[in-house]
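REQUEST
  id: r-88c1
  op: predict_structure
  target: DUF2510 domain-containing protein
  payload:
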Amino acid sequence: MNQLPPSPPADWYPDPTGRHQHRYWDGTNWTDTAASNGAAVHDPLVPLQRPVEARVSATSAAVVAATEEAPRKRRLFGRRPAPASTRERQPTGARAPYPLAGGSGRPGVEVEAEFAYMEAIHAALGRAPRLDEEMVLEDLTATLVPEPDNPHDANAVAVQLGGRTAGYLGRDDAREYQPVLMDLVRAGFAPTARANLWAVARKDYDKPRKPRYFANLRLALKDPHLLIPVNDPPEAASSLLPWGNALQLTGEEKYQGTLARYVSPAGDGLALGTLHVTVGGTAKSPKDVIEVRIDGQPVGTLSAASSVHFAPVVQHLASGGVLALAWLRLKGNAVSTQVTLQATKSHELPQQWFAELSTIPRLRQR
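RESPONSE
  id: r-88c1
  status: 200
  body:
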């Protein structure tokens, strides 16, 4: 008679009840702690089979698979180890990254359930924090992965750092953002956003020998209707200026016929425009003026006073045959539209921005 193998180690496994995504096995018994999408819940249950006994039960095959295939995790902290998702996802590494608009804004969208993904967070940090050490990483790139097949929330959106899930958008945020993220995924892209990460280790008074870890991950995301431009970048070489403070264009009323084609149904949207140095002012006092174009068509100009802040970078790029590309915000309707330029001024650009072209993929087929 074959002997049953020893009981599997304490860890998270697929919930045998099917009520949640994972349930914690303490090495001897199933516990009342379950989790879905990284969010832990208290869910009392009737006695269940041990994972080792489940080897002879077809209904608990998922527990067997998780036990046999689960990697040996190094216990780095006193709290229970984080559950890893067992569902198959399309690898984001095979998709071209698509930086969502407004990524240079202050990260303000909170990610939830970081506690369940500490191993991924510590990997992003390079190591786990020491006791009472606060670690901060800014300007990280996070990938947003919509999960319409998630059995616990069809609107779920995972947030990945370095290809590993580090948390999830809150339910309300996920419901708002998932549709536009799905559009990008269907087009073959992996949506990305700038992120800031904070982590710390504190004393765990229940288990004094091991610290307890905490983390906070935030994303720089505009409202869902402001994540994707209504047009594509030009086919010619261009470099996208980082998002900056709004500057109102002048003379938009002369180009309303053009602007009407780009106003979103919501009355508020983003477009990509190119900046060009033209001659303005008077015959006696000519001045460099920045003209803004969408898909090659003029839609307005900056004032002479504002133009001086952008002319240097526009001329610098033009000397190398590259167009200066910028975000434009369009508010209005088919008969009246206001356009603001959202771009960083020449003297505020970081030195590393000049090292290579800052590009954004084309979403639409010609």
